[in-house]
Write a structure and sequence with these properties.
With about 425 residues, the protein is an alpha/beta fold. It has 14 helices and 19 strands. About 25% of the residues are buried. Bound molecules: zinc ion. Zinc ion binds next to helix 10.
Length: about 425
């Protein structure tokens, strides 16, 4: 093996996840033994073993793995080679694998795999990359396989370790030495926010204004994001808060019969009466949840309009309840951040659907319906009458959509009323709303 400066030590990294611990051929001693034999075959010796139990290959915060990286990347490190049993032990995320291995390579450290002995040439690199992708795919498959094990854990009264519902946290419970399960306990700060949200909603605020009030108080979601209408709605409908978590309600995306749901009793955050009251209020206050709403018409500029202030997409907003021929009389486009989260996220700038659609069609007309273009098409009808027909045709729904999709890259609405249209062909058009 080529020694790189002072780096000449080989080390081992072995890992099993909690779900894999039962599988014999993956056991930590078996991995370490295979790695040692591999090193011997290459005339080397394993100087140190980094052994990680109970950590998933998709987990970025594996303590032993991070210690290994820290040790190997140190400028004074003597590590030249990290040996794993299989690339999936190193990491199951193909992108993460690339990033980490590139860093290590730059520092002069190789990662070798016992089961996939890649050559140190372009083909080897290609094979390695392929295996990393396969590892990621398998990791996703494993997620499906473990669902049976999760159902079993719930039957035994444990939380199967996935994300805890809002208001709770998952805490480890040692069933017997070496066997750990999880239980749910109340997360007091989240629970306080939940009670606050329920109280505000009962007091008359809609989900959107509840989101706004929480945001104004500086409260954020678990991920540190602003509260939005949809997040509050999810929170208000979380049945776990009443003390019963349902598990396995769906199989392959389909709802299972209620009798097959598993349930787990957890501490209550909201009493059953309050929860039921909020569900009743939601049915009353949100007409969109009741049937009979006019079907929404496909929007001409769907997916093309963006906010000039915050960069979010623009979406359709209705105002006024009058519906004519299945269309709302008053329709607007506005910034998604404002509509979903509130003023704290973006002030938004509302623009009537018709105004924007017309402005864009006018811009397209100026590009499409011109004399030179007309001559290019070698049409021999009198120019003016053909242009007129063209303009009418351009405003037919299906034709307009075709032109929009072919010609327009993006439309940015600035809050001073400027509309900037970027065509796919380059250049740009500016106009006032
Ligand atoms: Zn915005």
């Amino acid at each position: 093996m080529r020694p790189r400066g002072e780096r000449r030590d080989w080390v081992a990294y072995a890992r099993v996840s909690t779900a894999e611990q039962a599988e014999k051929d993956l056991s930590l001693p078996a991995q370490c033994k295979a790695i040692a034999e591999f090193a011997t075959r290459h005339g080397a010796l394993i100087e140190e073993q980094y052994v990680e139990a109970g950590a998933s290959g998709t987990d970025a915060s594996r303590p032993v793995f991070n210690r290994l990286l820290g040790d190997a990347l140190k400028p004074t490190s003597t590590i030249s080679t990290i040996v794993v049993h299989h690339t999936s032990r190193f990491t199951r995320d193909a992108t993460h694998a690339r990033v980490v291995k590139t860093k290590l390579r730059k520092a002069g450290v190789r990662v070798l795999s016992v089961l996939q002995d890649f050559a140190d040439d372009p083909m080897g690199t290609l094979m390695e990359g392929l295996f990393e992708c396969i590892d990621q795919y398998e990791s996703e498959l494993n997620g499906l396989r473990t669902s049976a094990a999760m159902r079993e854990a719930v039957k035994q009264g444990f939380w199967p370790g996935a994300r805890a519902p809002y208001g709770y946290r998952s805490v480890p419970v040692e069933v017997r030495p070496g066997l750990e399960r999880h239980g749910l306990e109340v997360e007091s700060r989240e629970a306080a926010l939940v009670r606050e949200a329920f109280t505000l909603y009962i007091a008359g605020s809609g989900a959107k204004s509840v989101a706004r009030m929480l945001n104004q108080r500086g409260l954020r979601t678990r991920a540190g994001d602003l509260w939005s209408k949809s997040r509050v709605t999810l929170l208000l409908s979380e049945e776990a808060l009443t003390g019963t978590v349902h598990w396995g309600m769906r199989k392959d995306g389909l709802l299972r019969p209620r009798a097959e749901w598993l349930s787990l009793t957890v501490p209550q955050v909201i009493d059953a009466e309050t929860w039921a009251l909020v569900q009743r209020l939601r049915r009353e206050r949100e007409p969109s949840r009741s049937p009979g709403r006019a079907p929404s018409q496909p929007k001409l500029l769907k997916g093309l309009v963006w906010c000039g202030a915050c960069g979010a997409s623009y979406q359709y907003e209705t105002s006024g309840k009058r519906v004519v021929d299945g269309h709302y009389t008053y329709g607007y486009y506005n910034c998604r951040s404002l509509l979903r989260v509130g003023k704290e996220a973006c002030a938004g700038f509302r623009i009537p659907l018709k105004t924007l659609d017309d402005a864009v069609l006018d811009a397209i007309e100026r590009v499409v319906c011109t004399e030179p273009r007309f001559r290019l098409l070698r049409l021999d009808a009198p120019a003016e009458s053909v242009l007129k027909e063209w303009r009418v045709l351009l405003r037919r729904d299906d034709v307009a959509r075709t032109y929009v999709q072919h010609l327009i890259e993006r439309i940015v609405i600035h809050h001073d009323g400027r509309i900037v249209i970027t065509p796919k062909t380059g250049g740009r058009t500016e106009m006032e709303a």
